[in-house]
Design a protein that fits this description.
Layout (H helix, E strand, L loop, with lengths): L1 H8 L5 H8 L8 H13 L3 E6 L7 H20 L4 E5 L10 H17 L4 E3 L7 H13 L5 E6 L5 H8 L5 E5 L14 H17 L3 E5 L3 H13 L7 E6 L4 H9 L4 E7 L3 H11 L1 H10 L5
Parallel strand pairs: 1-2, 1-8, 2-3, 3-4, 4-5, 5-6, 6-7, 7-8
Helix pairs in contact: 1-12, 2-11, 4-5, 8-9, 11-12
Amino acid sequence: MINQLVAKFLPLVPRSLVRVIAMRYIAGETIGDAVKTVQQLNSENAKATVDVLGEFVKSREQAISETATSRIVLDAIAENELDSGLSVKLTSLGLEFDDEFCYRNLYSIVKHAHEVNRFVRIDMENSPYTSRTLLMYRRLREEGFENVGIVLQAYMRRSSRDIEDLADLKPSVRLCKGIYREIPQIAYQSREDVQDNYKHLLRQLLDIGSYVGIATHDDVLVQDAQLFFMDNPQYAGHYEYQMLFGVRTELRRALIMDGNRLRVYVPFGADWYGYSVRRLRENPQIAGHVFRAIFRKE
């Protein structure tokens, strides 16, 4: 109940207070902020993927601007020799109103990333965009790009079938639980069902030869993965752990100390307020965690 109340009344919270909360989980507003954050993470032996905040773009002009910003970020990553890739949301590139226009924007980003020897992760958004996102990923791979990966969500009932459909590509996959609110007909609702499906999908991806980003802060899933890889050393080099910036830093450091490859998702941008409100309203449980985090240090 407290989680839902926090999420419901978040828009009434002073913007300055939301900023204090948000900046624990966002690198800042500028590319320079993102660069400094990634440099610090790299110094701690963590890799990164930078995300330019912004989604559900409504105009071609804004989508073109977002595309240009992504290319500039790739240049900054390369020029500063950061151990980082780039993550992009297709609704920021025009997917909401024109698929082909969006694809052209995405193609230009991935092509530029190839030129500067960097990797692009296509984020997965809510269910109206799932099939279209996977189609664009396949188009890029069929055009010869190897420097691009996708995201699959363990709470989606379709994800196992999607892995089967992508098997010929041996995709690089960021495997997460999923944050958007979806109906029971298409998404598992209980924590246990999502955890069980996550475990199944991880093994399914490894079986088809995928490189997997184990993107979770869930102790149950992290421990399951650790035990699995202890018993299956043949998968060494086929996975990494992934975490969100500002979340469970002690777990992140422990995984790195144990010799694991780990990547941190680093969002930045002027849309920090919209991003924070959307994320917290979509997932009241996170809203509750953030509210409690105000009163304690991690």
